[in-house]
Design a protein that fits this description.
elongated
Length: 206
Amino acid sequence: MLTQNVRSIWLRPGNATASVGAIWILSRLLPRLRTAFPRARLRVRFDGGFAAPEIFAFLEREGPEYLVAMAKNQILERRAARLMGTARRLSRESGETAHLYSECRYAASTWPERRRVVINAEVVRHPEREPKDNPNFVVTNLKQSPRHLYEAIYCLRGDIENRFKPGSRAQRAIGLESPTVRPPRHAPQSLEFVLETGEVFIRQSF
């Protein structure tokens, strides 16, 4: 059974980058969650606006599992080039969207070390449209296969965000922070966060 609970909403300037305030929110939230759910595994999932050196440093210091989308660049596109070529061929032969998965070790110039990057080589096809290359990259400290990480874990982020959109629109004009985190009757084995434009979502898996 899955339940979702809004734990924090923060109204920010319209020109603020996605990562502004993320560390402040999580530095307050993570200790409370660990106290409330001492046996739970914590997992953080971010979109590409949060792929900043300070975010990675914070996550690795605090120790949760994480998946963070990474904007494409020339280096990552070169790493994905051969796989994208195969995906184009498969998509052309099938007439459908094609996905292939791989991984690499990558370090941006501002990173002190290389990190695992999952590669999703995607070619998107829609009727009466030209096929479109859509490579995606996700930085993670998890150990599962690239396909499982992307399809079964990271892509669930969009589903959770969609569940909250109606309610979050009504609350964007106020600041809200939960003063306490209370465990449910049956404590979850894992907790996941999706943080987008100042909103923290918690997904509890029982």
